[in-house]
Amino acid sequence: MKSIDLNCDMGESFGSYRIGADEAVMPHITSANIACGWHAGDPSVMERTVRMAVEQGVKTGAHPGYPDPMGFGRRFMELSFEELRNAIVYQVGALRGFCSTHGIDISHVKPHGALYNNAMVDETVARGIAEGVASIDTAIPVFVLAGKKGQNMARICRENGLRVVFEAFPDRAYTPEGNLAPRSMEGAVKTDPSEIAERALMMAEEQRVVDTDGNTIEIEAETLCLHGDTPEAATLVRSIRSTLETSGVIVKAV
Amino acid sequence: MKSIDLNCDMGESFGSYRIGADEAVMPHITSANIACGWHAGDPSVMERTVRMAVEQGVKTGAHPGYPDPMGFGRRFMELSFEELRNAIVYQVGALRGFCSTHGIDISHVKPHGALYNNAMVDETVARGIAEGVASIDTAIPVFVLAGKKGQNMARICRENGLRVVFEAFPDRAYTPEGNLAPRSMEGAVKTDPSEIAERALMMAEEQRVVDTDGNTIEIEAETLCLHGDTPEAATLVRSIRSTLETSGVIVKAV
Amino acid sequence: MKSIDLNCDMGESFGSYRIGADEAVMPHITSANIACGWHAGDPSVMERTVRMAVEQGVKTGAHPGYPDPMGFGRRFMELSFEELRNAIVYQVGALRGFCSTHGIDISHVKPHGALYNNAMVDETVARGIAEGVASIDTAIPVFVLAGKKGQNMARICRENGLRVVFEAFPDRAYTPEGNLAPRSMEGAVKTDPSEIAERALMMAEEQRVVDTDGNTIEIEAETLCLHGDTPEAATLVRSIRSTLETSGVIVKAV
Amino acid sequence: MKSIDLNCDMGESFGSYRIGADEAVMPHITSANIACGWHAGDPSVMERTVRMAVEQGVKTGAHPGYPDPMGFGRRFMELSFEELRNAIVYQVGALRGFCSTHGIDISHVKPHGALYNNAMVDETVARGIAEGVASIDTAIPVFVLAGKKGQNMARICRENGLRVVFEAFPDRAYTPEGNLAPRSMEGAVKTDPSEIAERALMMAEEQRVVDTDGNTIEIEAETLCLHGDTPEAATLVRSIRSTLETSGVIVKAV
What we know:
Chain A has helices spanning about 20-25, 45-55, 80-100, 115-120, 125-135, 150-160, 195-205, 235-245, and strands at about 5-10, 30-35, 60-65, 140-145, 165-170, 210, 215-220, 225, 250. Chain A is an alpha/beta fold and about 250 residues long. In chain A, the strands form two sheets. In chain A, strands 1, 2, 3, 4, 5, 8 and 9 form a seven-stranded parallel β-sheet that branches. The first copy, chain A, has a two-stranded antiparallel sheet with strand order 6-7. In chain A, α3 packs parallel to α5 (about 125-135), α4 crosses α5 (about 125-135) and α7 packs across α8. The two termini of chain A are about 15 Å apart. Chains in contact: A-B, A-C, A-D, B-C, B-D, C-D.
């Protein structure tokens, strides 16, 4: 029987600022990517988010980003290999602190925003992240973009002894090459709940997706990334999970 | 035979900014209090400092501070109990990340600057720090000001199951009550190397110090705090250590 | 005929984070207190907010705060007189940059959060703010808490050649001494729109308010502070303004 | 008679951190590029630096940078045009605050580090800076790299109505194309004081420089950038100025 993990970025509030419907979404996912205080999040948000994940039986992954709160970690920054590796150790270590106070450990690492995107295309960034995670513990898996674009990062993670977990995006269009269609392309981001749920189901059951040409292509993924920052996020996530489980897919953490 | 620990604040450089003669001082101390990126330090400085400490056989303690790099953590900030506890977990966790990459663990926690000073006089601050450390690991000792003023903090740490290590300051004058003389008082900060070395020796051998009235009072301390941020710091630290060892005091970490 | 100014904190969003219903509230107020990037706000938010104010004919005041985005400027920080004065010059100068690009000038200064509260009780804070504003331009008025508690700050501003504009809070309870009732007291914060509107009207027309004992006391105020951070903020602000104007009070900037 | 401006980055200290021999260098230069609190500097450093410049009759220019204190503004950050323009308005405005308290105005703008370098090669960055400065006051000149590489930035500044002041680097090697030789090339950075002084003299007197092939090429420059962050900085700057003045070059601000 097929199984799939559902992950979502969590804990991206900061001080008095609220982003994300964390309380509503958490019960329906299996892996939380928790911001570590650099692009978003703060110690009290991290504590609250880890506690909530533990209460809901959700896995606690680190979601490290660039040191750019003003840009929410979505702006590329030119960090050296050493700076990248140390930035990962710092942020993963900080989240691990909160995990340890709840008697659990980091379940995975998923880089955020521009750091994630650049890891897929820039070998220095990929190596910085991979060596950072591996230097802490090679038992911590890294989430990597499914499809052709993620293969380089996947190789580098494996060279560092790390397990790679490919992730796909059911609400994003895929090109015939198996890459995410650029957001500027019409239809690049799906918003129809039933279409997203159907795509999620095909990804989980068949490891395939319908590309922008209408053809069905392979997309190997162990986890699906869902979005938690819209008002309808919880409803959407619940409906995706329900569609998966009704069809016999087991929803569980990797 | 008597023994004493020598601690010094380390890793307080930040980006292109250099503070402290870390390379020169490290070989002569036994415990490093390593800044955690809030009041000072950054991930690359932390990595460098932990590595240097490991190479020199020096213990790696966390030196958490207020989130105030502009004020170097020396300005009081009114954080709530929860904010304090979580700030400790965050910073200790981050440093622990670097320790773990070198196969070691945090040896102790010593709060920095205004956070340290306020912990001695404000029960909320003391509890925030103590619960933060205890929630990570009760095996991590906390450095507390020797003398009357530190007793409250010491009690709170012990209530949280933590070991307390009292520290004295050989370059600071003590009042008859056993408190640090305010810096505004003439002679509050000693600068003569041989006087500082002698005071350090009396503290280590006799657990006593000559107060501002010229009387000898008791001061229970397991560690002595030395300063590493002057040009002559390394010379001074080396001479203190030499004076201690020549007199038969064993200099070793707690 | 009586006139009154209506002020509201604006531009407190930051990067991807949104706070405040600025677009909806702006058309109904006469003075905007615009965050300057320290406790909240960023350059793009400042530009957007100044432009919006100009388009709506609303005055653009500076709303400087402590350098504490994590605490939203609501946590006391122990800054020296020089640090305070320079923090004011920096933040007011930065906002003035955006004003100048729109051909206008800073209309007033209203300190934010803990900085405002401390200015009313701590002479060093009051002097730091007053000298900072005066060093830029003594033609810039400062908003000061109406009632007994604000008298010291008012005196210090006047000693620095600054005009003082007293502000009252129609949604806050007042003690018989003419001070704000502490938020912990039941009924300290009014939420009933018609009660708030009535209190605003009495403040504007009679310079009086009903205190927590039910007596009517004097409260001299030229501006009323309204809140823009709740979902119903715009409706409430519009209804207050409507009540004032229907009763013949002229709503205009000071 | 020939004249030349000597500029130097100033005010790059931050809190307890000291960088640059500002006090020693200031008397010998004619234009100070003063950091604005983003990549370096803080309000108290800015106040101190502006005051010192005024006392020495040195012009006060703004030295804005990326919001990256950890990287000292030397790491590229991918800001949008609007973010760049607003970052310039913010930082120039903040420094202008301190200038206004001393009865003077901003004399020029020189972007810092990665922002400067990217302005020379990326049209969006150049436009963001130029429009930011022009929106404040087209009377503020912008310092632009002399030689081929700066022509695009120069054109964009002029299109925005701004005066361009080309600057050359007497301690840097130039390629035959009139560009700075990459720092990785041997001999790219000159350290011999008399060689630097001679190159400065040829730049000022003849508007020429000896390139890496040993040929003399034209380099149009109205200002020379000197460095103030080494222990010998003041001696070097004084000797350059002395060489220029002895040879009859008038050293004065642009």
